[in-house]
Amino acid sequence: MASIKNFPKEEYVLKGHAACPGCPITIALRTALKALGNDVTLIVPASCSAVVQSLVPKTSFNVPVLNIAFAASASAASGVAAALKRLGKKTIPVVWAGDGGSYDIGIQALSGALERREDFIYVCYNNQMYSNTGIQRSGATPYGAWTTTTWTGKKEMQKELAEIVMAHHIPYVATASIAYLDDLYEKMKKAKEMEGPRYIEIFSPCPPGWRFDMSKTVEIARLAVQTGSWVLYEAINGKIEFTSYSKMLLKGRERKPIEDWLRMQGRFRHLTEEDIKRIKEAIDEKWKYYMQIYNKD
Amino acid sequence: MMETAISYPTEGGMGKTGTWRIFRPVVDNSKCINCRICWVYCPDAAIKMLMDMPENEGKDIKGIEIDYDYCKGCGICANECPVKAIKMEREEK
Hints:
Number of helices of chain A: 12
Strand order of the largest sheet of chain A: 3-1-4-5-7-6-8-9
Distance between the termini of chain B: 49 Å
Strand content of chain B: 15-25%
Order of helices and strands of chain B: EEHEEHE
Number of strands of chain B: 5
Largest sheet of chain B: 2 strands, antiparallel
Largest interface: A-B, 41 and 38 residues
Largest sheet of chain A: 8 strands, mixed
Radius of gyration of chain A: 18 Å
CATH class of the domain at 26-90 in chain B: Alpha Beta
CATH superfamily of chain A: Thiamin diphosphate (ThDP)-binding fold, Pyr/PP domains
Helix content of chain B: 10-25%
Number of domains of chain A: 1
Number of strands of chain A: 9
Mean pLDDT of chain A: 95
Number of helices of chain B: 2
Oligomer: heterodimer
Mean pLDDT of chain B: 93
Distance between the termini of chain A: 21 Å
Structural class of chain B: alpha+beta
CATH class of chain A: Alpha Beta
Shape of chain B: globular
CATH architecture of the domain at 26-90 in chain B: 2-Layer Sandwich
Shape of chain A: globular
């Protein structure tokens, strides 16, 4: 098991970038690039990450980056992968996209690339809304959450992109969180050693978008896992294994009350008792299902 | 043909982002246990472990150094520190 004490000391995200204070993207990217090394090409669609790089002619990412249109990240990665193969290079194309560019706008290109068995890693950092354009709802926004386009709270449940991706039967699918960086590091390392399409989704709480204090980014990400609202697992060739804290939950450790997590975020401030009950029921239902299917040994 | 805009890696792409800070993390290195938690969670890569510095190689040294030129003062380090060695103090300008 990887430990943060053994992480490489090299930094591929340079100081003085354009991210907001307390941004989860750079926490995730720092660790991801520590695991992958610098022999990668990042493909970044329209997203906060395109802005975080800072302004031309300077960039804060110390690896090659291809900035591309919103819907085109996975198709661009397919092209980059083909070019690298033709040149005989071992460089890994890595898509670094947000949930808007993955769940909604980029899903067609993503599904196509997965089905074609393109050789690349797709990373979706999920902050459950379009933060770069000003906090609009996305397919990943959870039930009840305030955004600027759902200002009385979202009325629908979010979809599960990792499960949609798994339906493509690709070699590696994993979910991670910025609070469990040793787990994220390990998953990145595993993905690096594999071939074919690989998908990793990273849970990333956004301080301005979710309306919480910027010092609580990691705490909220951790509570999301401990309350069972976000689940850490990996699927190697379709075989699902829970990892890290979620594995302990699966083995019977009690989940923390979801109210603790909801109360920390301004986007859930307006929730009624009934809304909270509905969220709770959805999580209970989800875990009941997991217990039946995955808690075998 | 139109030329493509190309950027090159530079520290301080947005200038000295330390000027964004409202609260400043102040560390008491005598409490530090070298757990690396603040180092790994810092979104700005502005924390350096003293033991990683070449001049401290081989020494039994505990503590961190914060780069105030670029630290944006988010306070994640102070919030996550398991021994409460980092405190946030209001910047006076």
